[in-house]
Design goal:
Blueprint (H helix, E strand, L loop, with lengths): L3 H11 L3 H5 L11 H14 L3 H7 L7 H14 L3 H17 L9 H17 L3 H8 L8 H13 L3 H14 L4 H14 L5 H11 L7 H13 L3 H14 L6 H13 L4 H14 L4 H19 L11
Helix pairs in contact: 1-3, 3-4, 3-5, 4-5, 5-6, 5-7, 6-7, 7-8, 7-9, 8-9, 9-10, 9-11, 10-11, 11-12, 12-13, 13-14, 13-15, 14-15, 15-16
């Protein structure tokens, strides 16, 4: 069973309170909470776009497979060159194999962490089948965090039916857990279940916690409000999220602000400016790539279209 301190850290990570985690003081290295806390802190750095800070936390001489995996994920995220990305992915593949050996010196939690971090990297690299296999999608895994990431992968490839199956399976063995509620909210946000009310209610309930500061949750509720047609309330959430991020929106907040500007009463130039910023700062964001694909398809079809000659009146 987790200590109360580690339980709180896990909840903060689940709800996207990353800034609180990176400011934590690590426990003594002899404490059983040391490695899990360090890993959650490193993952928070990665989520905030600071993979170098995450890698710097991990002792270079560590033999712990979970610590090795979070360092490898940090290198993958930080890599600009394809060679460096491939090297990080290969290291994560090796670690995934290592934890399957009968003589693997790793706890169940450490093994689960390796699978989640490796699966995360594979999904980000576009290796969807490898990500699902690593996360244990076909093996009815009883690691709730692996289930959560499996659900996200399925939602990312427009398979909410498979995401729902994973969730229903998890409900049979998982205790009433905050992460289970978050999984359900994510599925509801994509499928529109109950008019997005369940997802909206979950985010609102968590944001009522006075000890929690999470721009991630604010953005999520802003998206839910956009889907419910509550544009003004959504914009308020997104502005607050940007404020909590130090005035510079992250990719998900900026993308939501772009959509909100397009739906709101503001000038269309506002949406254009936001989309230009999103394209420049986050060129691989799904909103940007989807728009570009549709623009390319339009140009392709337009090039094939022949404008008929104007009809002339007969004498």
């Amino acid at each position: 069973m987790d200590s109360s301190e580690l339980y709180h850290i896990k909840q903060q990570f689940t709800l996207g309170a990353y800034k609180s985690l990176v400011d934590l003081t690590l426990p003594d290295p002899s404490s059983p909470d040391y490695t899990p806390t360090l890993i959650y802190q490193a993952r928070a750095h990665i989520a905030l776009g600071a993979p170098a800070a995450a890698e710097a936390l991990v002792p270079s001489d560590t033999e712990n497979v979970a610590l090795k995996s979070v360092a490898a994920l940090a290198r993958f995220v930080a890599a600009d060159a394809e060679e460096a990305r491939d090297a990080a992915l290969e290291e994560l593949r090796d670690l995934s194999v290592e934890i399957e050996g009968e003589d693997a010196e790793a706890t169940p939690w450490e093994k689960g962490t390796v699978r989640v971090l490796a699966g995360t990297a594979f999904a980000r690299a576009g290796e969807i089948e490898e990500a699902l296999e690593t996360l244990g999608a076909a093996n009815d895994t009883q690691n709730l965090e692996a289930v959560a990431y499996t659900v996200q992968v399925y939602l990312s490839i427009n398979r909410p039916d498979l995401a729902r199956k994973e969730f229903e399976r998890a409900k049979r063995w998982a205790e009433d857990d905050l992460l289970l509620e978050l999984i359900e909210a994510s599925i509801g946000l994509v499928t529109g279940k109950d008019g997005y009310s369940d997802a909206h209610a979950f985010y609102t309930e968590q944001l009522a916690n006075p000890s929690l500061t999470s721009p991630h949750l604010l953005t999520a509720r802003g998206v839910a409000r956009l889907l419910r047609g509550e544009v003004s309330a959504a914009q308020s959430d997104l502005e607050e999220a940007q404020s909590q991020l130090g005035g510079k929106p992250d990719a998900e907040t900026l993308a939501a602000q772009t959509v909100a500007a397009g739906l709101g009463a503001a000038k269309s130039t506002d949406a254009d400016q936001l989309f230009s910023q999103l394209s420049s700062e986050y060129p691989n964001h799904p909103l940007v790539t989807d728009y570009q694909q549709k623009a390319d398809l339009f140009d392709e079809l337009a090039a094939k279209f022949t404008v008929p000659a104007l009809a002339t009146a007969s004498a």
